[in-house]
């Protein structure tokens, strides 16, 4: 269909009734969607909607008799003023007068605006005189920007011309003041997004590197140079032809994203939320299996906003010089190749990078070597971008570059600003091919908050911070370890490669280990160091998995882990890499509970390595030592010694092995003071221990006690992270739970007493509370996780079966699992609860009704019942 056939200008204004206007808009929307799906030029579609809206508004303006007032003008502002309208973008209008409209005219204006609302158009409007516009615009940069890019749709040209004349730079927001205000506005907007676009749910328009950053360039150019389009900036010498094409390409892709998003959700919203990404990726033609279309689209988005941010930074620097005259800064020589302009590094010879690619690495070495440097000078950045694109091979193929790269990796400030700028400006991608493949590589899940390259960058920054004094408080063990590492560059290299093989298929740890080994040997590291880096990459998840999913108080687990680590040097490297990795995965993953687990695993392994793996611990000695220390604590609290011995005689040896002396003393003191045997004893630590709130329950054992507690905690919106389920010799439950609030913090305040009371009431009755059936969150609805139940070999010392559960994270999951164990007559001894985004990966230590490991038939039955329970998603 020809777009002209949709034009309301072909109709008499009197025919523009509400139904007719709705029909016109519906036909236009259908036509735009068809042409978009057919691959028409996005700029033409955006302009076409704006032009058709002009015609419709002109007709309605005439229909309401507003054209008869010789002083009134209808003006487009905002994106509409630029002639850009996406399918559901706001129609920003200024109804401009030379004075105060008469009441009758105000009524007609009101009817005009009401009709636009009745048409379900997203209209933003104001009715102002020229004087009011100028007065408001001088106080607000956003209003001023709208006025500067205002466009007459219909009405009195003289009134509009008066506005145009009043907003000239010599009278209204001179270009210097305008530039400074827009730069400050951009910096403030970037801070709202934590100065990054690398979010799971970015804002296409307002995130750093988004459409608003392109508009900021255009606004400044328009104000200072009178450039109405990006292409005019080429003639002013502020954009090269190649940079203009690049900026236009970026804008077109972001426009396509925004256009497709508006079509998918049928409203004006620029947030690329999880539940919208699949529809948008499909509309843009990205294809593949599973989540591949989304991941391809997001990779293109992240790469695009990085290019926009780079151009925006360079151009704003150039504008700073041209508009504010800041070119005559303090200039100091650094080397024969580089100088400082203020706090920005500048290359002296403009052909240096093209003539000698190794100079690129020397630039970043100088940034590491001089802490006063805060960035790269605009012309140098342009030369760097140009040289990067002209490289015939990756820089790592050159021996001189390899030598410089290792010099940089060994510099104590390498992972500070130098690495950040290498990442930001694409130098890491130009240095070695593996990095170029992960730029913008995202994973469509709720666990990884950043693309692979940004996550790795943040990990390296964490390692850099571990060496700073502030880390002594936040990560004391990392501070101590990193301060004594003899070759910290090996940790940097392991961090650089730990996720380098993601997105290729296969085990990324194994593939990355091979890449790391080849890279290290290529860079002349000795074989021992190269193998250490490769080992760290291969096992970078080992410590996290062991701490969070295995029983680290089981000597077998510690012995197995220590056997894989083999020496304390590897343990030091692995611990630091693990903490940095967890902290860099997303902003909410790290908490004191994880920190406690990792520290306890570290020290237990260190002790095992120092003792020698051929000398396993004497468990009887450990039990006696735990009892001795617990007795000392109790004596200090004036607990009668004669009461301790009979109490402890009721406890199994396993109890004393798996609890610390502090826990044993805490439990014993409250059990001895508990007088009412008819009520359960429920205690929660006032001072959070081990990184979480420790909940202790002492009660005659009963069926499905774990499931009932889990259901009660779910009702309180608390998460279980660890559980030790024990029974005394005379049939009393001695159960310990580590619980945290949803934000990873321990329970505090009034919640402590309320929780103890509520659990006490739950335990008095056999029927568990109903599991809350809540709809899945907006994000969770986008995922399907196949329920998997796997069994590990029984543990040698404890003779228990380990069950691994992988499933979608749903409310009440632990309560339902507990009910399955109870129905099958199984004994639960311990649980490790790990939530990874939308997925749970939980471990349960089990025995059958005869307190033996589960046989094959029992495992098969348990797997069937668990999958059946979770897949039906019903109540207990």
From TrEMBL:
Activity regulation (record text): Uridylyltransferase (UTase) activity is inhibited by glutamine, while glutamine activates uridylyl-removing (UR) activity.
Catalysed transformations (reactions): [protein-PII]-uridylyl-L-tyrosine + H2O = [protein-PII]-L-tyrosine + UMP + H(+); [protein-PII]-L-tyrosine + UTP = [protein-PII]-uridylyl-L-tyrosine + diphosphate; guanosine 3',5'-bis(diphosphate) + H2O = GDP + diphosphate + H(+)
Query: In the UniProt record, does the keyword Cytoplasm occur?
Result: no
- GO MF terms, alphabetically ordered: [protein-PII] uridylyltransferase activity; guanosine-3',5'-bis(diphosphate) 3'-diphosphatase activity; phosphoric diester hydrolase activity
Domain annotation ACT: ranges:
694-770, 802-876
**Region of interest (Uridylyltransferase), residue spans:** 1-333
Q: Name one GO biological process term.
A: regulation of nitrogen utilization
Q: Does the keyword Metal-binding apply?
A: no
Q: Which SMART domains match?
A: HDc
What this protein needs as a cofactor is: Mg(2+)
Q: Which InterPro entries match?
A: ACT-like_dom_sf, ACT_dom, HD/PDEase_dom, HD_domain, NT_sf, PII_UdlTrfase/GS_AdlTrfase, Polymerase_NTP_transf_dom, UTase/UR
Can you tell which superkingdom this protein's organism belongs to?
Answer: Bacteria
Q: Where is the HD domain?
A: 452-574
Q: Which UniProt keywords apply?
A: Hydrolase, Magnesium, Multifunctional enzyme, Nucleotidyltransferase, Repeat, Transferase
This entry's Enzyme Commission designation comes to 2.7.7.59, 3.1.4.-
Q: Which family does it belong to?
A: Belongs to the GlnD family.
Reproduce the free-text note on domains from the UniProt record: Has four distinct domains: an N-terminal nucleotidyltransferase (NT) domain responsible for UTase activity, a central HD domain that encodes UR activity, and two C-terminal ACT domains that seem to have a role in glutamine sensing.
Chain's role:
Modifies, by uridylylation and deuridylylation, the PII regulatory proteins (GlnB and homologs), in response to the nitrogen status of the cell that GlnD senses through the glutamine level. Under low glutamine levels, catalyzes the conversion of the PII proteins and UTP to PII-UMP and PPi, while under higher glutamine levels, GlnD hydrolyzes PII-UMP to PII and UMP (deuridylylation). Thus, controls uridylylation state and activity of the PII proteins, and plays an important role in the regulation of nitrogen metabolism.
Q: Which HAMAP family match?
A: PII_uridylyl_transf
PANTHER family linked: BIFUNCTIONAL URIDYLYLTRANSFERASE/URIDYLYL-REMOVING ENZYME (PTHR47320), BIFUNCTIONAL URIDYLYLTRANSFERASE_URIDYLYL-REMOVING ENZYME (PTHR47320:SF1)
Q: What is this protein called?
A: Bifunctional uridylyltransferase/uridylyl-removing enzyme
- Organism of origin is Oceanisphaera arctica
Read off the lineage from the record.
Bacteria, Pseudomonadati, Pseudomonadota, Gammaproteobacteria, Aeromonadales
Q: Which gene encodes it?
A: glnD
């Amino acid at each position: 269909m020809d777009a002209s056939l949709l034009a309301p200008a072909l109709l008499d204004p009197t025919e523009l009734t509400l139904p007719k206007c709705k029909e016109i808009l519906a036909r236009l929307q259908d036509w735009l969607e068809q042409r978009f799906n057919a691959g028409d030029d996005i700029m033409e579609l955006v302009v076409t909607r704006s032009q058709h809206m002009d015609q419709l508004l002109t007709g309605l303006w005439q229909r309401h008799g507003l054209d008869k007032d010789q002083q009134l003008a209808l003006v487009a502002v905002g994106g509409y003023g630029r002639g850009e309208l996406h399918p559901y973008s706001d129609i920003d209008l200024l109804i401009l007068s030379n004075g105060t409209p008469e009441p009758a005219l105000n009524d007609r204006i009101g009817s005009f605006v009401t009709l636009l609302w009745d048409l379900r158009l997203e209209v933003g409007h104001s009715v102002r005189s020229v004087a009011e516009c100028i007065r408001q615009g001088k106080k607000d940069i956003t209003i001023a920007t709208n006025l500067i890019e205002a466009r007459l749709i219909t009405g009195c040209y003289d009134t509009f011309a008066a506005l145009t004349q009043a907003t000239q730079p010599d009278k209204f927001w001179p270009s210097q003041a305008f530039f400074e205000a827009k730069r400050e506005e951009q910096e403030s907007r970037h801070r709202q997004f934590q100065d990054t676009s690398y979010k799971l749910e970015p804002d296409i328009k307002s995130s750093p590197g988004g459409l608003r950053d392109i508009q900021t360039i255009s606004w400044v150019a328009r104000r200072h140079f009178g450039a109405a389009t990006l292409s005019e900036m080429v003639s002013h010498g502020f954009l090269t032809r190649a940079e203009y094409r690049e900026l236009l390409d970026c804008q077109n892709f972001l426009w396509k994203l925004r256009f497709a998003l508006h079509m998918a959700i049928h409203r004006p919203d620029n947030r690329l939320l999880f539940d919208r990404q699949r529809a948008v990726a499909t509309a843009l033609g990205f294809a593949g299996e599973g989540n591949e279309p989304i991941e391809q689209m997001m990779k293109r988005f992240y790469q695009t906003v990085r290019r926009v941010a780079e151009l925006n930074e360079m151009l704003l620097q150039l504008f700073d010089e041209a508009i504010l005259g800041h070119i005559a800064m303090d200039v100091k020589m650094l080397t024969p190749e580089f100088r400082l302009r203020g706090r920005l590094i500048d290359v002296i010879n403009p052909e240096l990078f093209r003539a000698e690619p190794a100079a690129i690495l020397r630039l970043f070495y100088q940034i590491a070597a001089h802490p006063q440097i805060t960035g790269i000078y605009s012309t140098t950045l342009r030369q760097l971008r140009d040289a990067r694109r002209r490289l015939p091979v990756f820089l790592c193929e050159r021996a001189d570059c390899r030598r410089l790269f290792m010099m940089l990796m060994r510099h104590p400030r390498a992972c500070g600003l130098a690495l950040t700028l290498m990442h930001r400006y694409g130098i890491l991608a130009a240095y070695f091919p593996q990095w170029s493949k992960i730029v913008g590589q995202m994973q469509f899940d709720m666990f990884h908050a950043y693309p692979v390259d940004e996550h790795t960058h943040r990990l390296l920054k964490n390692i850099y911070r571990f060496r700073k004094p502030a880390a002594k408080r936040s990560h004391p063990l990392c501070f101590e370890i990193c301060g004594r590492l003899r070759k910290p560059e090996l940790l940097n290299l392991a961090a650089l490669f730990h996720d380098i093989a993601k997105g290729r298929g296969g085990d990324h740890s194994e593939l990355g280990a091979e890449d790391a080994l080849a890279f290290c040997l290529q860079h002349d590291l000795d074989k021992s160091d190269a193998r250490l880096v490769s080992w760290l990459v291969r096992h970078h998840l080992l410590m996290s998995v062991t701490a969070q999913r295995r029983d680290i108080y089981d000597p077998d687990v510690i012995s197995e882990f220590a056997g894989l680590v083999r020496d304390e040097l590897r343990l030091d490297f692995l611990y630091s890499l693990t903490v940095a990795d967890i902290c860099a995965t997303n902003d909410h993953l790290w908490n004191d509970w994880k920190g406690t687990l990792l520290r306890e695993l570290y020290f237990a392994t260190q002790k095992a390595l120092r003792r020698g793996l051929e000398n396993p611990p004497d468990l009887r000695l450990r039990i006696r030592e735990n009892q001795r220390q617990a007795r000392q604590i109790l004596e200090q609290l004036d607990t009668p010694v004669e009461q301790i011995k009979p109490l402890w005689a009721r406890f199994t040896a396993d109890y004393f092995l798996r609890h610390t002396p502090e826990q044993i003393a805490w439990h014993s003191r409250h059990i001895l003071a508990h007088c009412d045997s008819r009520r359960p004893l429920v205690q929660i630590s006032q001072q959070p221990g081990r990184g979480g709130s420790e909940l202790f329950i002492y009660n005659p054992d009963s069926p499905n006690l774990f499931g009932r507690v889990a259901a009660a905690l779910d009702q309180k919106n608390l998460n279980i992270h660890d559980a030790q389920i024990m029974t005394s010799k005379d049939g009393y439950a001695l159960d310990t739970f580590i619980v945290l609030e949803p934000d990873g913090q321990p329970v505090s305040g009034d919640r402590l007493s309320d929780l103890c009371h509520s659990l006490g009431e739950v335990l008095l009755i056999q029927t568990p509370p109903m599991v809350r059936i809540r709809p899945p969150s907006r994000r969770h609805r986008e995922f399907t996780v196949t329920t998997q139940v796997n069994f590990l070999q029984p543990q040698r010392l404890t003779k228990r079966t380990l069950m691994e559960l992988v499933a979608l994270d749903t409310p009440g999951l632990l309560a339902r699992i507990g009910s399955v164990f109870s129905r099958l007559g199984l004994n639960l001894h311990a649980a490790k609860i790990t939530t990874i985004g939308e997925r749970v990966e939980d471990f349960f230590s089990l025995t059958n009704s005869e307190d033996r490991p589960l046989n094959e038939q029992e495992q098969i039955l348990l797997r069937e019942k668990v999958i059946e329970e979770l897949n039906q998603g019903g109540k207990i």
